[in-house]
Request: fold
Amino acid sequence: DQQVKQNSPSLSVQEGRISILNCDYTNSMFDYFLWYKKYPAEGPTFLISISSIKDKNEDGRFTVFLNKSAKHLSLHIVPSQPGDSAVYFCAASEAGGTSYGKLTFGQGTILTVHP
Amino acid sequence: GAGVSQSPSNKVTEKGKDVELRCDPISGHTALYWYRQSLGQGLEFLIYFQGNSAPDKSGLPSDRFSAERTGGSVSTLTIQRTQQEDSAVYLCASSLATSGSGEQYFGPGTRLTVT
Reply:
């Protein structure tokens, strides 16, 4: 049962354009969402997060949008740069309760930004 | 400052052998998580430590898997009688907070190959 889904295995974008990565979730108990970026042979690095009480969070070129009713979030990168090429993972957690903050990850989307 | 470190970076072992994977979290981080990433999959939660205790072992795939943490710091993940399906990248993460709003910092992972 895949509770967090990234339906696009890959995305190719031209440098300077917008990259939009999508993520869907099924568990209504999730109330905190994160995006991680991963380069080959490295661990994932935290990019940006959003609490369920918000619908948008922005940090420089990165913006995350959350649509709770649709159980959907997206990461926008604008403008995209070749250095953004990596695997992007969407993750979710239950901020409270007994989940202990463990993250449930999507399968990842490989982003390639062409010069 | 020092991040999360893991050793070995790569491990090739024969089916049926036992392996030990080590994680050194960021100093002062009380929460420690183990995940694994199989080929083409997202990260899968294995076990969570708060201090030296493991309140959530729900992700361990079988009783061949065990983990311990000593001194509230170093953790080892042990896989007994390894099987080919155990081949994956094993990632360790640490966090200051135990709630879902705590950002997790990942190590580079240990790539385990069972032949």
Observations:
- Chain B touches chain A at residues 4, 31, 33, 35, 40-45, 48, 50, 55-56, 59, 91, 93, 95, 97-109 (CB under 8 Å).
- Chain B is about 0% helix and 50% strand.
- The radius of gyration of chain B is 13 Å.
